Amino acid sequence: MGDPYFPKLGNGGYDVSHYGLTLDYEPDSGRLKGEAVITARATQELSAFHLDLAGLKPDKVTVGGKGARFNTVGRELVVRPPDDLDKGETFRTTVRYSGTPQTITDPDGSEEGWLRTADGGAVALGEPTGSMAWFPGNHHPSDKAAYDIEVTVPKGLKAVSNGELKGTRETKSGGGGRRTTFRWHSAEPMASYLATVAIGPYETKTWKTKSGLPIYTAVSVSEAAEGTEGTEGTEGTEDSAGALAQIPDIIAWQERRFGPYPFSSVGAIVVGEDDAGYALETQTKPVFPGVPDTELMVHEFAHQWFGNSVSPKTWQDMWLNEGFATYAEWLWAEDRGGDSAQETFDAVYAGGEGSGGVWAFPPAKPPGPDRVFDTPVYVRGAMVLHKVRQVVGDDAFFRILRGWPSTYRHANADTDDFIAYVEKQAGDKGGDKGGDEGGDLDAVWDAWLRGEGKPKQP
Ligand SMILES: [Zn+2]
Questions:
Q1: Which CATH number does the domain housing residue 2 bear?
Q2: For residues 156, 162, 168 and 171, what is the CA-based torsion angle, rounded to 10 degrees?
Q3: What is the dihedral of CA 31, 71, 8, 262, to 10 degrees?
Q4: Secondary structure letter of residue 280 according to DSSP
Q5: How many angstroms is it from 79 CA to the middle of ligand 1?
Q6: Any residues with CB less than 8 A from the CB of 241 and at least 6 apart, and which?
Q7: How far does residue 373's CA lie from ligand 1's centre (Å)?
Q8: CA 50 / ligand 1 centre spacing (Å)
Q9: Ligand 1 centre from 301 Cα, in Å?
Q10: 384: helix, coil or strand?
């Protein structure tokens, strides 16, 4: 894929439309048996192609139902189909694989991939490279696909994944133990880094948002995830059930600000607070370590529009994910009687809370893969959006906030797409200040988005 920050991620030559994953996990041993059925279209003639897979052993590979030759080189599974694939041909690859899925340490030191949890289960987190630890695929955000994920675990445990639960069934394993299979379906396209599976003793709950969207939440039955009994339904609640009760409010507010929710369900997975070093916006069900606070939920749910529906073309475009999600937190405070976004911006500019390292590099140009998730990408990314708001005025800005995720719904976009979109909106509609004749937007891009150092304020 030639990603500027993670050049080995993803593979050219084909485009995946669907993953069918059948997984069987044994928590005691940590062993995973899997089958991935990958439906893809060749974008060029192919005599061989690569899939990303790390730490698991491919046992058998077929293409179009016929045995294929394969070998692994590092984190690449190289497949040679028995017949060459024509450009434009849709083909189905089945990979049977097994092993003990591993935790991957990122360039920035954070852990992802397959994480064993304190409750005896596991959770899969994939940003940016971790999904290859549990299934073979084209693991780059530019190749999005629909998913069906089926997970079998010992009876008594639950397996939670993206999308909607289509059914469960019980079986007996060879050893005589009872097992439960959970079938999850994600119809809308998903970048593979947003795929997740969480296995463990979960308390689950289903209900609906105000607009009728199904909600499915899962909280690990461990003190570290459930929290202490708090006052339910209020901000600052100390138990997960109380925190998650805010989902309908948060989604209703986001639908007003960002337009229709882009997926057919919403939810959350709460693991123990030491099980993951961070929260992640896994599609339709963000993963939270411990009781999530309101701002964090606002952030991860905002990603459903910004990052999950509109996905980055490369990891260089991460500020489009994190800048919007951070700005969502600022807007939430503004709309709820807290600090206005201007006040938050001013406080960061003045060196207040959360501003440490914010001028280290421009958000559109992180200096390396270890810095793609650093403060400038989040906070200075949000500052870029606030500068746009100052230039185009509130009416045009809030049109952009709804129009951008609608225009690029379920697609990929990069920084140039965003600049072009904003300039078109400012020019066509004429912002409150009469469009951008003075080139004020150029100044925002030059100084705030791409310029080194702390920009000067007029
Ligand atoms: Zn984020």
A1: 2.60.40.1730
A2: -60
A3: -60
A4: B
A5: 35
A6: 205, 219, 226, 232
A7: 9
A8: 29
A9: 9
A10: helix
Residue 97 Cα to ligand 1 middle (Å): 32
pTM over 0.85: yes
Tokens in use for 1? 């894929």
* Amino acid identity at 378: Y
How far is 427 from 382, CA to CA, in rounded Å? 22
Q: CA 424 to CA 418: how far, in whole Å? A: 10
Other C-beta atoms lying within 10 Å of the C-beta of residue 441: 20
CA angle 153, 179, 289 (to 5 degrees): 25
State the pLDDT at residue 414: 98
- The letter for the amino acid at 2 is G
- Are 67 and 97 in contact by the 8 Å Cβ rule? The answer is no
Helix (H) or strand (E) holding 323: helix 318-335
- Of 284, 304, 324, at which residue does a domain stop? 304
Tens of pLDDT, residues 368-420: 999 999 999 999 999 999 999 999 999 999 999 999 999 999 999 999 999 99
Cα(233) to ligand 1 centroid in Å equals 24
Task: Examine the domain organization and report whether 178 and 91 are in the same domain.
Answer: yes
Q: Sorting pLDDT into bands at 50, 70 and 90, what band is 352?
A: confident
Residue 315 CA to ligand 1 centre (angstroms)? 13
What's the domain range around 381?
311-449
Residues near ligand 1 ion, CB 5 Å cutoff: 322, 325
Same domain, 15 and 159: yes
How much is the pLDDT for 233? 47
| Chain segment 235-269, per-residue pLDDT in tens | 556 899 999 999 999 999 999 999 999 999 999 99
Does residue 340 sit in the same domain as residue 433? yes
Would residue 169 count as lying in a domain?
yes
pLDDT bin (cut points 50, 70, 90) of residue 114 is very high
- Give the per-residue pLDDT at 144: 98
- Judgement on whether residues 330 and 426 belong to the same structural domain of the protein: yes
Final residue of a domain: which of 134, 160, 194? Answer: 194
CATH number for the domain harbouring residue 445: 1.10.390.10
Residue 431, pLDDT score: 47
Residues 271 and 169 in one domain: no
Q: How far apart are the first and last CA of the chain?
A: 41
